[in-house]
Design goal:
Length: 168
């Protein structure tokens, strides 16, 4: 596998604390690997017909979705683990936790291989208008491995956010 290279971009943003306009760094996508692209690439390494491979892949994804909706953590070898996160306020006693509002989210914890590739990625700054902005349909992580509101994901492979209680 070749060394990962990521492009960084300076984006205008409002500081939520001070309400001042400034800049933040975002990671530009190197493109999107949709189901068709993945199946096309995977079909080159097998004698399976693309239609059979697609059906098998879709069936596997259905099982993953069902497992998650049943509250199960899903481990995808070489990719990572999809599980759940819970955040809420800190309390002095366990009983007080029942009185605190909790936010439950879906969390992705990358495998050691994926995490190592990201952590050791080469980076360079983009030219204006170059690359794709991070999508809002699942790629909500901010610089530094901290998830955007409600995503629960972590690029470091450890639970993110204060008060997280993760199983799996």
């Amino acid at each position: 596998m070749s060394k990962l290279t990521l492009k960084l971009s300076k984006s205008k943003a409002i500081n939520p604390s001070t309400k001042k306009m400034g800049y933040r760094t975002t990671v530009k996508s190197n493109g999107k690997a949709d189901m068709d692209t993945i199946i096309e690439s995977a079909s080159k390494n097998t004698t399976m017909h693309k239609a059979e491979l697609r059906m098998a892949f879709e069936l596997a994804l259905d099982v993953v979705s069902e497992a998650l909706t049943n509250g199960q953590t899903v481990e995808l070898k070489g990719i990572g683990t999809i599980g759940f996160s819970c955040s809420g306020a800190w309390t002095e006693t366990a009983d007080e936790q029942k009185l605190v509002e909790h936010k439950i989210g879906v969390a992705f914890y990358p495998s050691q291989e994926v995490n190592a590739a990201v952590q050791t990625a080469k980076t360079s700054w983009t030219k204006d208008g170059e690359g794709e902005e991070p999508s809002s349909d699942g790629d909500n992580t901010q610089q530094g491995g901290k998830p955007s509101q409600g995503s629960g994901s972590s690029s470091t492979g450890t639970p993110s956010g204060e008060g997280d209680d993760n199983e799996g």
